[in-house]
Design a protein that fits this description.
four-stranded antiparallel beta sheet; two-stranded antiparallel ribbon
């Protein structure tokens, strides 16, 4: 049966001699025997154990957890649970880092787009990023609920053209108008706007917001805080709701 010195087992496992010695000091990898000269010698089973320790360390498990795991007679089930927990932890870290990366990219885009970029602009971006998913859900809800009305109305137009029956078109036009009024009130009661001048978050009057020129992310409004008139950035919620 092969015997390995500390240096040999370190080389086979791709770690330093000091790492092997550290695992020995923590009783994770105790040598099978000592040579006559006092050198530590490791067996094939020790090599397998060392490789398992390295794998678990690479997976992000702590030394204490590995130590407890190696004490188990049948560690298979415990390893499975630990790996699932570690997977969840790593995924949360990835999501957190992705959120931070998205914010950095958003700030970089804003720096290029805004002429007078300031510290307050970073606060505006942070607020928008925080509420970005809520705004996306609101847009998706509007699309999902409005699509059937649009299909029905165009179907009634086709029916009118083919058969000459016009009343379904009139009915769906009325229903579409009622839906449009309701969804507009619903929408503007849930979004606010960030003034690029004073950086305050405000909610305009419904009539102004409804008829204002706009893009998917901007709307030309008059800030209720400083009186600035121009394109303001759309976001979800309102400042007092954030404070609550």
């Amino acid at each position: 049966m092969s015997k390995y010195t500390t240096g040999e087992i370190a080389k086979l496992c791709g770690v330093s001699v000091r790492t092997v010695q550290y695992y020995d000091s923590r009783d994770l990898l105790i040598p099978s025997e000592l040579s006559e000269g006092g050198r530590r010698l490791y067996s094939e089973e020790d090599l397998k154990r060392m490789r398992m320790i390295c794998f678990l360390r690479d997976a992000g498990l702590g030394i204490n957890s590995i130590g407890e795991l190696l004490k188990e007679k049948e560690p298979g089930n415990v390893i499975s649970v630990l790996l699932e927990q570690q997977e969840q932890t790593l995924r949360e870290e990835i999501d957190d880092r992705q959120t931070k990366l998205d914010m950095i990219e958003e700030i970089k885009r804003e720096i290029k787009r805004v002429e007078n970029f300031s510290v307050e602009s970073i606060g505006d971006i942070a607020y928008r990023m925080k509420n970005k998913k809520k705004l996306q859900k609101l847009h998706a809800m509007m699309l999902i609920t409005g699509l059937p009305f649009g299909i029905a109305e165009w179907g009634s137009v086709a029916l009118w053209c083919i058969t000459g029956i016009w009343w379904p078109f009139l009915l769906w036009t009325i229903l579409m108008a009622l839906y449009g009024t309701w969804i507009s009130v619903y929408y503007f009661s849930r979004v606010s706007y960030i003034c690029p001048q004073c950086h305050e978050i405000f909610r305009p009057a419904f009539k102004e917001a409804f008829f204002a020129r706009h893009t998917p992310t901007l709307r030309k409004l008059t800030c209720t805080c400083c009186g600035y008139h121009g394109f303001c950035v759309e976001t979800y919620g309102r400042k007092e709701e954030e404070n609550d």
